[in-house]
Specification:
CATH superfamily of the largest domain: Aldolase class I
CATH class of the largest domain: Alpha Beta
Radius of gyration: 22 Å
Low-confidence stretches: 435-439
Distance between the termini: 14 Å
CATH architecture of the largest domain: Alpha-Beta Barrel
Strand content: 15-25%
Number of domains: 2
Length: 439
């Protein structure tokens, strides 16, 4: 891409106002490398927004020389200020391909969001991201509608002591979680939070952070529901949610659901005693294979396994597992295939690390070894420099190939593989896999 046609750099003043730099072009980050982007951006998607990165200095590219320029001072009229870098947050269904081009100055660890590279083109703001799942029933305009609060009040009044609904009220109205809101809308995939505990201490955990870490973006539920409470919500949802009916144990507002596998197993038995509708699914770190086996015995039919890498040392340095390790995770994936469950991987993607050649090869081998059904790309919500400190010199090596090429490689190697961002209901699982998006 000629330098003269590259998007302009964005900076933010101390009040948060976003400004186009008059001379410099936008840079991006891939792992430890800050550079001029080699891929084209897309217009800022509906539902996306630009965000200020406090304590991070923007890095631009001089269009005359191609050299990187650290912007430590900016001037607007007679006003001079120290600028902050600018990134973007893209909506569900999108996967970032580059991180913002910035370096740390004095400032805190950034809050836990998936920061995406952004710039300014002639038509407005642009971002470096792929539209990886175009399923319209997950588009943002279907959520947080004016009638949501009334629906929440009605559901809570009908079962006022139910701890599942109590947690989902917070998740739906405060965190604006789509799967939580679906329970109140009575459609598609509905959330069933269950656990207050976790057997991992993920560096980027969104519901539990140490005192010296960033503020957790969610508050973890503090009172685990009973099997009966779970079953009441699940049965009502599966009976009303239509052809994509699904309930999922394991949400961002809780710990690891497998730590309460006995309660979940009993809930599943209660559900299946009343209805055979829909899918019973779990989002999990797949740590407790024995507990997972009990869930399959009870009637679980779908699993999504969260991982940042298919290489043990990078996986374990991020998840910081307690009394389990990567071999247990793979054993659970193998068990899931043996039990003919629908198997999805929730891949926490990070440009410049996830797309390294060795990492892609390890993931490719895992997908083929267990004939994984779906790869759900999830941009990792973490301060980029915090994750780089963890991932540096870990995992498999090689040059980053880019997120877009990584997805093409994985899809081409496993033609049956679905690539997207959202879970599939029972009726959707028999449909042919769609081709991964091209940049």
């Amino acid at each position: 891409m000629p330098l003269s046609r590259s998007p302009a750099l964005l900076v933010a003043d101390p009040s948060g106002q976003v400004l186009e730099h008059p001379r410099l072009l936008a840079s991006v980050r891939s792992g430890d490398e800050v550079m001029l982007p080699t891929e084209a951006p897309v217009p800022l998607p509906d539902g996306a927004r630009l965000v200020q990165l406090p304590g991070r200095r923007p890095v631009g590219v001089d269009p005359r020389t191609g050299e990187l320029v650290l912007v430590s001072e900016a001037r607007v009229g007679r006003r001079t200020f120290v600028p902050d870098a600018v990134g973007a947050l893209v909506p569900p269904g999108w996967t970032r391909t580059y991180l913002p081009g910035e370096v740390k100055a004095e400032g805190p660890v950034l809050p836990q969001w998936a920061y995406t590279a952004a710039g300014w083109d002639t038509g407005g703001a642009v971002v470096w991201a792929l539209h990886t799942d175009r399923r319209t029933h997950w588009t943002s305009e279907r959520f947080s509608t004016p009638e949501l609060k009334a629906r929440v009040r009605s559901a809570r009044a009908g079962d006022p002591e139910n701890r599942v609904l109590r947690q989902l009220e917070t998740c739906a109205l405060v965190y604006r979680c789509f799967t939580s809101q679906n329970v109140f809308y009575g459609r598609d995939e509905g959330a069933l939070p269950v656990s207050t505990m976790c057997n991992a201490a993920c560096v980027g955990c969104i519901s539990d952070q140490p005192d010296d870490g960033p503020p957790a973006s969610h508050e973890r539920m503090d009172d685990g529901p009973t099997a009966e409470e779970l079953a009441r919500v699940a049965v009502a949802h599966l009976r009303s949610a239509g052809p994509r009916a699904m309930v999922s144990f394991g949400q961002g507002c809780e710990g690891e659901p497998l730590t309460r596998w006995r309660v979940i197993a009993e809930a599943i038995r209660r559900v299946r005693a009343e209805t055979q509708a829909g899918s019973l699914h779990i989002n999990t770190n797949a740590s407790l294979t024995t507990g997972l086996r009990a869930l399959y015995d009870a009637g679980l039919d779908s699993i999504r396994v969260s991982l940042n890498s298919a290489v043990a040392d990078l996986y374990e340095v991020y998840y910081r597992p307690e009394r389990y390790g990567w071999p247990d995770v793979e054993a659970s994936i193998a068990l899931s295939r043996e039990r003919r469950a629908y198997v999805a991987l929730n891949l926490l993607t990070f440009p410049g690390v996830t797309d390294r050649e060795g990492e892609v090869e390890a993931l490719r081998a895992l997908i083929r070894r267990h004939r994984v059904d779906q790869l759900q790309t999830r941009s990792l919500c973490i301060d980029p420099l915090q994750y780089l400190d963890v991932a540096r010199d870990r995992g498999a090596g090689g040059r980053p190939m880019g997120i877009a090429r990584m997805l093409r490689v994985l899809r081409d190697d496993a033609p049956w593989l679905r690539v997207g961002n959202f879970a599939r209901g029972l009726a959707e699982r028999s449909q042919p896999a769609r081709v991964s998006p091209r940049p």
